[in-house]
């Protein structure tokens, strides 16, 4: 019997640990509602200030509401959701929406990578899926907001080409927090 190093289960897998594989990123489909609900609850449990609702509110929402949102964002050019789907549970999400006052812009929202997949390049894959969709819709720019002080997220978005615009806005649900806007070409 041969033995190798014992993997450190507390450490997120590196690209090498994952065999160089990536979770396929694709646009959400209507049949994904239950898996998207599970990921949404995970997102809220992991980062309660980032997603504009409480886990209690999300858990109380009927499945039919999740299904309707998933169906709506699975098609069209105004709103879209993308998921990382290695099979089984989703491991990442990013959405895009077109603000009515800036038709050349896509706002990237609800960006999330499950902890065991962080550091694998999946964040970039999710952002690129939104960027591809944005360009296909004739929108050449992306914008996102991040809580001031969330330096890890800020640095990750910088590595993906986003720059701080200098614009600061109040957090939509926590008055004591401020968000900063970052933009980049799609």
TrEMBL record:
Protein origin, superkingdom: Bacteria
Keyword Acyltransferase: yes
N-acetyltransferase domain residues: 23-186
Region (Disordered): 1-24
GO MF annotation, one: acyltransferase activity, transferring groups other than amino-acyl groups
InterPro entries: Acyl_CoA_acyltransferase, Bact_Acetyltransf, GNAT_dom
Record key words, sorted: Acyltransferase, Transferase
Protein name in the entry: GNAT family N-acetyltransferase
């Amino acid at each position: 019997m041969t033995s190798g190093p014992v993997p450190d289960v507390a450490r997120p897998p590196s690209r090498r640990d994952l065999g160089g594989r990536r979770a396929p990123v694709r646009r959400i489909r209507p049949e994904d509602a239950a898996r998207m609900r599970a990921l949404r609850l995970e997102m809220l449990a992991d980062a309660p200030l980032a997603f504009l609702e409480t886990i209690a509110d999300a858990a109380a929402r009927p499945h039919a509401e999740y299904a309707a949102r998933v169906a709506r964002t699975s098609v069209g050019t105004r709103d879209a959701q993308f998921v990382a789907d290695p099979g089984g549970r989703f491991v990442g999400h990013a959405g895009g929406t077109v603000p009515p006052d800036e038709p050349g812009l896509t706002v990237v929202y609800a960006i999330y990578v499950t902890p065991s997949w962080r550091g694998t390049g999946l964040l970039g894959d999710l952002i690129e899926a939104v960027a591809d969709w944005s360009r296909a819709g004739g929108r050449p720019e992306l914008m996102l907001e991040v809580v001031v002080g969330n330096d890890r997220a800020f640095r990750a978005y910088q590595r993906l080409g986003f720059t701080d615009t200098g614009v600061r806005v109040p957090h939509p649900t926590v008055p004591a927090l401020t968000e900063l806007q970052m933009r980049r070409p799609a």
